[in-house]
Amino acid sequence: MKAYDTFNPNIPDAEEVIPAPTLPPVSEELRQSEPKRKEKKETVKRVVKKPEPKTKRAPAEPLVPKIKRWVGSQTTRWILGLFLGFFAVYLGFSFLSYFTSCIKDQSEINNTQIGLSGDISNVGGEGGARIAEFLINESFGLGSFVIVLWLVAMSLKQLVGKPRFKSVDFTIKSIVALVTVSLIIGLLTIGFNTQVNWGGYHGRYVNEFIVHFFGWTGAIILCMFLVGCFFVICLRDFINWILRLKRARDARRKVEAEKRAIQREREREIEEMRRYEDADAVPDAVEEMVESDDDAQVVFNGEEPGLYSTLPDFDDTEYSIEDDAPIVSEHSPKEQTRTEAVTENRTSSVETTPAPEPIVTPNPEPVDDNPDLEEEEDDMIVNVNSISQVETPHLPDNHGLPGAHPYKFPPFEILREGVVKVSVDAEEQLENKEKIKKTLLDFGIPILSIEATVGPTVTLYEIVPDKGVRIAKIRNLVDDIALSLSAEGVRIIAPIPGKGTVGIEVANKDPQTVSMRTIIKSKAYQETKYKLPIAMGSTISNDVYIADLAKMPHLLVAGATGQGKSVGLNAIIASLLYRKTPDELKFVMIDPKMVEFSLYAKIEAHYLAKIPGAEDAIITDMDKVVATLSSLCVEMDNRYQLLKEAHARNLIEYNDKIKAGKLNPLEGHRFFPYIVVVVDEFSDLIMTAGKEVEIPIARLAQKARAVGMHVIIATQRPSTNVITGIIKANFPARIAFKVSSGVDSKTILDTTGAQQLIGRGDMLISNSSPMVRVQCAFIDTPEVEEICDYIARQPYGQGAYELPDPVVTGSESEGGESGNNFGDKDALFEEVARLIVSSNTASTSSLQRRYSIGYNRAGKIMDQLEAAGIVGPAHGGKPRSVLVDAVTLESILNG
Ligand SMILES: Nc1ncnc2c1ncn2[C@@H]1O[C@H](COP(=O)(O)OP(=O)(O)OP(=O)(O)O)[C@@H](O)[C@H]1O
């Protein structure tokens, strides 16, 4: 019965294939003939065997695209460019040498065979002499120099991508030039009796025919016609090119002039600063005078609340418009206001308005004398003007009211000029459209129309599918379309919200960088009424994307490493720095990487906030993070308390009351600036401190909006243990740069898509309205540095905004420590001391981890160890040095 084994359902092979009852009966014949049986068995197996799952093999790339890709590759282009370039040089020298050597070489060439010529004078040798003889004398005469120009242009195009032209167009024009020049020179030299035909045989014989046929008059008219054609076809582009070069040179000169102006401005500022310093050293009499003047301006005396209203009425038209939606400006970045001039004018207004105290008035120097700008000037200077009316840097306390310090926003010239016009090769666009149409048709999806919108890095192809097409079907074709276009960054939006179309985004071959300057100078940004406008970049339709951080109200930024997060954070910070004065805005910067925000340390006095006693305002030390977050929670609670007492629902109402003099500063009321907390590498914090960080961040995110505190967290690890449920729930506004997987994209945006971005600032923004793809504005480190330098050069007396003392929670003070007295040793003191000395490392964060204690307790143990001389002082984020050995330690502990 062995022969039946094949059909036994218990044998795996058979079992998998078919159930036994359906098998045909086995014949006697089969049993008798073993070979036959085997054969039959195989046949049956083949018939019944379930098709094995196909192992997916990458489809072999067809030959033609492969060749195309190879031809279009950078290496091939460079090799071709080099070849054309060197050949052009060789040909150029041979042609030039032909003028001096043609007569002698001609007879040599004509009398010998190729390769056998002996005495050749042409610097290009026999080859050069023969090519020059053929092209100049026997073909197109001097017109052949066009070939050299063509070679040079093609070579440069291959090597450096410039000048930009379409190869076919350029070649046709070059041929027209070659023929025309040859004919014209041929006509002009027709009577010359020289050994060389300066118009070549072509110029000579064609002209002889023309003169014979049309006579001299006809020949001259024809010649003029040809010259006209030549100018129209060839030289027009050339003239345009020259004009473009000229314009570029003028623009460069303008930028240089602007730079010089900035330089002068800086020198003037330095001069101003010196004056301030001198002002500190004024004689006592003047000091007294200032003080008495201050007394006269006491803003609130506790008895006459009305007096407070004599303070400047800070213009708050800015707060009058409420709008949650981010601005996607209808104005393209091209449309820019003349705000550079306005900035200057703001300056001039502050400077020229007479201040009550001469020693602090900056040098009244007219900055801009353009009368056209006067009106704008009046509009833009409101804040600063009102400042200058009470301008008194010696005024000891203005209760934080904005405008107490003369302040100038950084000029735009600091930022680099960027691309204004974005364009995509018409050929590329047409080709992509055709490919999309074809791919969709291949999958049985006919479309009615397709239109392209070109963005800085991505082009949106909007298609209208035929009736009856299932949208989901198109959505599933993303990979096929990407393959057919051989492009990255393909994303399908099906359907585009609010439109009856499907969008296919495709990365441009030649992506443009959107400069921060273009965005900051845009009318949309300049005229926005948002309270905390963050200018993020440019949308696919080249509109400026601006959102209001105050409405967001907190922002989560995530993306894989190197995709533009840091640039994005700098863009956010810079756009706030260009709109908010130091009195109106403070940052808390948490930077575990230690390098990202270090540039902003310069503006500590102006824009940063820190906890009492902290050395650095940029928090790089993990130990300080918990304390700072705790301090921010206290600040939030304090603000709420004051808001409650002032019967104000939010910070704007509260600050309005302050400005109107309705609140008593002696009761703790003061103008509160916005606080923006920026946390880079949030994942590091969560990994190290876990709940100790997550809980205060979540608290702030839940409540801090109304009191003007906003949190931005950034992470390159968008996993669920970093972006936890509690964090996600409290950060409705999210930005995703390119991530490595759809899962990461879902973690950030709750949907896939971010994995299909192209990097380098390409991002998706999800902020209450439908998700938007934006090319982030690019701001480079030197630009940030210059902005900070500019701000830092301006005197600002207040110093860093002081946050309240952090609270020591019950859990953190457990374990036998008593308050702030470091003399009373913690219960863990001895154990920790021995551990530190034996391991020779002393870091507060490792203590926290090892003993599962809070920051405050670990910090205090460390301070006690320092006080006992066991460890050295703190050095920023670095571990402390261990000062004693085990023997000394024991004597300290016993003594
Ligand atoms: N908006 C942009 N436009 C053009 N290029 C950009 C843009 N943003 C980033 N890039 C390019 O990408 C590089 C990396 O950007 P960035 O340093 O911001 O990445 P990152 O995500 O912060 O990386 P990491 O997490 O490792 O610090 C930049 O040096 C720059 O060349």
UniProtKB/TrEMBL annotation:
Organism domain of life: Bacteria
Protein name: DNA translocase FtsK
